[in-house]
Amino acid sequence: MPELPEVEALAGYLRERAVGRRVDRLEVAAISALKTYDPAPSAAAGRKVVDAGRHGKFLDVRLDGDLHLVVHLARAGWLHYREAFNSTLPLKPGKGPIAVRVRLDDGSGFDLTEAGTQKKLAAYLVTDPALVPGVSRLGPDALAADLATFSERLRSRRGQVKGVLTDQEVLAGIGNAYSDEILHVAKLSPFALTNRLSEAQLATLHAAVAEVLGDAVTRSMGQRAAELKGEKRAGLRVHARTGLPCPVCGDTVREVSFADSSLQYCPGCQTGGKPLADRRLSRLVR
């Protein structure tokens, strides 16, 4: 799933490639992907792309006349920039992985695609990003929150720190992969309870958020959209590295699996050498 660093890099890529161009047309191939109906997709035609940014993990392509194409790429979505399209014919609804296509006036543009059968990519054409329900509920940006705000937000939700870190209403931008990385750097168990974290642990966790996300943004910016996934994987130390040695202490990276996701951690760095029980109903080591 694209998280804060990748969405930031995609926005930067669009600022370089698309800003200043006019939209030729906005095509919707997956009707379920477009969550708004007013303004209609045809309202984007002829408008200039004036900026690209993000709200947490939401990508925001701003057009002149106060129109925004806001996109949440979900778990399997991605943006593919095309210098030229193979055909000028409109997309056929329901055909292939392309959900939305934005054609620009110089023949270039980008596709929003989604792999797999669970279609959760969401696109909104709105006059204000705050009209998007997911955006209006976002907490402070994870990279912008100072220590006092960060501590207050984490303590506002009592629960396991892994889940609280990925709650977008608490902090915006952190997902499954980078939360694993942040907790590894902070040397915290993913199941540590937020209401039991000391001031020192919160400060360490806040610093780890800045370190992990800041480094990922630095590595991602300037990369082509097609290269961002590989860049993300290359920078991970524990996430998706089950069975491999921890690059810090050499212990074996372990995994806890859930119904539709998993987390990875290093026992040597994070749980005092004790493995966490890999069963949802087990008593978990904290």
TrEMBL record:
<dbReference type="GO" id="GO:0003684">
    <property type="term" value="F:damaged DNA binding"/>
</dbReference>
<dbReference type="InterPro" id="IPR015886">
    <property type="entry name" value="H2TH_FPG"/>
</dbReference>
<dbReference type="InterPro" id="IPR010663">
    <property type="entry name" value="Znf_FPG/IleRS"/>
</dbReference>
<dbReference type="InterPro" id="IPR000214">
    <property type="entry name" value="Znf_DNA_glyclase/AP_lyase"/>
</dbReference>
<keyword id="KW-0511">Multifunctional enzyme</keyword>
<dbReference type="GO" id="GO:0006284">
    <property type="term" value="P:base-excision repair"/>
</dbReference>
<keyword id="KW-0863">Zinc-finger</keyword>
<dbReference type="Pfam" id="PF01149">
    <property type="entry name" value="Fapy_DNA_glyco"/>
</dbReference>
<keyword id="KW-0862">Zinc</keyword>
<dbReference type="GO" id="GO:0140078">
    <property type="term" value="F:class I DNA-(apurinic or apyrimidinic site) endonuclease activity"/>
</dbReference>
<dbReference type="GO" id="GO:0008270">
    <property type="term" value="F:zinc ion binding"/>
</dbReference>
<dbReference type="InterPro" id="IPR035937">
    <property type="entry name" value="FPG_N"/>
</dbReference>
<feature type="domain" description="Formamidopyrimidine-DNA glycosylase catalytic">
    <location>
        <begin position="2"/>
        <end position="94"/>
    </location>
</feature>
<dbReference type="InterPro" id="IPR012319">
    <property type="entry name" value="FPG_cat"/>
</dbReference>
<comment type="similarity">
    <text>Belongs to the FPG family.</text>
</comment>
<dbReference type="GO" id="GO:0034039">
    <property type="term" value="F:8-oxo-7,8-dihydroguanine DNA N-glycosylase activity"/>
</dbReference>
<keyword id="KW-0227">DNA damage</keyword>
<keyword id="KW-0378">Hydrolase</keyword>
<keyword id="KW-0479">Metal-binding</keyword>
<dbReference type="Pfam" id="PF06827">
    <property type="entry name" value="zf-FPG_IleRS"/>
</dbReference>
<dbReference type="InterPro" id="IPR010979">
    <property type="entry name" value="Ribosomal_uS13-like_H2TH"/>
</dbReference>
<feature type="domain" description="FPG-type">
    <location>
        <begin position="237"/>
        <end position="271"/>
    </location>
</feature>
<keyword id="KW-0326">Glycosidase</keyword>
<keyword id="KW-0456">Lyase</keyword>
<keyword id="KW-0238">DNA-binding</keyword>
<dbReference type="Pfam" id="PF06831">
    <property type="entry name" value="H2TH"/>
</dbReference>
<protein>
    <submittedName>
        <fullName>Formamidopyrimidine-DNA glycosylase</fullName>
        <ecNumber>3.2.2.23</ecNumber>
        <ecNumber>4.2.99.18</ecNumber>
    </submittedName>
</protein>
<keyword id="KW-0234">DNA repair</keyword>
